[in-house]
TrEMBL record:
<keyword id="KW-0067">ATP-binding</keyword>
<dbReference type="InterPro" id="IPR015807">
    <property type="entry name" value="His-tRNA-ligase"/>
</dbReference>
<dbReference type="InterPro" id="IPR006195">
    <property type="entry name" value="aa-tRNA-synth_II"/>
</dbReference>
<keyword id="KW-0963">Cytoplasm</keyword>
<dbReference type="Pfam" id="PF03129">
    <property type="entry name" value="HGTP_anticodon"/>
</dbReference>
<comment type="subunit">
    <text>Homodimer.</text>
</comment>
<keyword id="KW-0547">Nucleotide-binding</keyword>
<keyword id="KW-0030">Aminoacyl-tRNA synthetase</keyword>
<dbReference type="GO" id="GO:0004821">
    <property type="term" value="F:histidine-tRNA ligase activity"/>
</dbReference>
<keyword id="KW-0648">Protein biosynthesis</keyword>
<protein>
    <recommendedName>
        <fullName>Histidine--tRNA ligase</fullName>
        <ecNumber>6.1.1.21</ecNumber>
    </recommendedName>
</protein>
<keyword id="KW-0436">Ligase</keyword>
<comment type="similarity">
    <text>Belongs to the class-II aminoacyl-tRNA synthetase family.</text>
</comment>
<feature type="domain" description="Aminoacyl-transfer RNA synthetases class-II family profile">
    <location>
        <begin position="30"/>
        <end position="322"/>
    </location>
</feature>
<dbReference type="InterPro" id="IPR036621">
    <property type="entry name" value="Anticodon-bd_dom_sf"/>
</dbReference>
<dbReference type="InterPro" id="IPR045864">
    <property type="entry name" value="aa-tRNA-synth_II/BPL/LPL"/>
</dbReference>
<dbReference type="Pfam" id="PF13393">
    <property type="entry name" value="tRNA-synt_His"/>
</dbReference>
Amino acid sequence: MDYQSPRGTQDILPEEQPYWRFIQDKAADIAARYGYARIDTPTFEDARLFTRTVGEETDIVSKEMYTFADRGGSDLTLRPEGTAPVARAYIEHGMGSRPKPVKLYYLANIFRYDRPQAGRYREHHQFGFELIGDADAAADAEVIDMAWSFYRELGLTTLPVQLNSIGCPDCRKAYTTALKDYYAAGVAGQCQDCRTRYDNNPLRLLDCKKPDCSAAAAGAPHSADYLCPDCLTHFERLKALLGAVNIPFAVNHRLVRGLDYYRRTVFEIQPLEEGAQSTIGGGGRYDGLIGQLGGEATPAVGFATGIERIILNLKRQEIAVPPLSAPRFFLAWLGEAAAVPAFTLGAELRRAGVPLAQSLGSRSLKAQLRQASALGVSYTLILGESELAEGTIILRDMGNSEQRPLPLDGLAATLSAL
Ligand code: HAM
């Protein structure tokens, strides 16, 4: 075949759909219970929305965005994340006048020109939620609690929440200076990315995965030691609240996250697995973002989790998901005289709410029963010419192969009661 799905994208086949439905249903359910309303934003946005907020120097903006000029000459980007679009929509629709906090969630496809591998795709899907308009550490704690509870409700076992505070722009200055002082002597021997980060985005020096760079990061100063009094109080309060609701967490001084809009709280959650590297979800506080986009300065905090990565881990942890609803009945027929009556009966039964698949073309009973078995129905109805003449139909129990006649009269009700 000449065509394949583009590298890093996937078809979601019918057999995978129960996982998707399970996760999407749980997402919508927990979002409703925590008071979040759904928002859907466009698949593409003005490219500057992301360059300005996610940050020119981040991997996402510098290496991973799908940006193109449309026929009108506008620079557009397939969304590489969901937070900036929600902030844009919040401002555009004047949601600042709604009672705060405004709580919004989304299920959206996300595009990043990443190197494809297990759990890393060029198109992936996220469940994300954003709590806008509350600066209190309790908002951070509630978002983390919801993320944590979401994985619990899916049945997934995760590692303790990785937590850090990277401070506000004020205290971050002192921290960045300390970080650069620490790296000054050795950075020339580190990777090209880190040499660039040293000048443009020093915080990101901490999460370089290359062995030499990682070793250097181990001795680096901790942002938590440079917090201003307000940021420190916020961080201490957040830890106390998480403790109060028994959410296991570990402060990870090297956690900085790959998007520039974060302030104070950053956090990530990893699944329980050997050599766990793949983060399933991450988030943090982004108090400057809405102001930066031209809205009134508004504190906010949020989280997003990758659906493909959740599915990978549901499978690894052998968690069964409920099957999708399927027909309970199959309607088979025999003899040309039964063809139209069988088709009509099938349509009538479905209109009456009976979940039923039917045999369409003329085939042997054996072939029709094979189809019924493949569909996994509980019962097959068999309409032959003689039954038709008598006003009956045969009901075959697919479990024990027992057959008995049923009157056609009131059939929908009879079947529904089975
Ligand atoms: P993020 O950490 O870049 O955060 O992405 C969130 C999650 O999306 C990741 O933890 C991962 O599960 C999944 N993910 C990211 N890239 C890929 C990929 N290439 N393939 C498969 N899955 C992927 C954000 O995007 C922030 N907007 C989260 C946030 C919301 N912060 C505040 N509010």
